[in-house]
Amino acid sequence: VQLVESGGGLVQPGGSLRLSCAASGFTFWSYNMKWYRQAPGKGRELVATISTDGGDRNYADSVKGRFTISRDNLKNTVYLQMNSLNPEDTAVYYCNTMRAGRNYWGQGTQVTVSS
Question: In Å, how far from its chain's centre is CA 23?
């Protein structure tokens, strides 16, 4: 199982970013996917989840209405569209899935929201 995040960077408050997570090594279309984030000095926080077919999506209250999770099962990729970013969204963002009771993580992508 391999998860590779991309798309992070420095953005001004109010800006947008789109994160991508390319998956390989497993049948992507049959697994729920998640995005987590970890801010400096804080624990890892669940941001969004998406079901296998994309029909069921859930968000943390802190990002609801601003972030959108989606997936493309033909490209084995899950996305996180982030709008109206604020400094509290600064964190390393991780893609995650669970397979056979084991959690798999990508290396993370840094998102910094600052003027």
Answer: 12
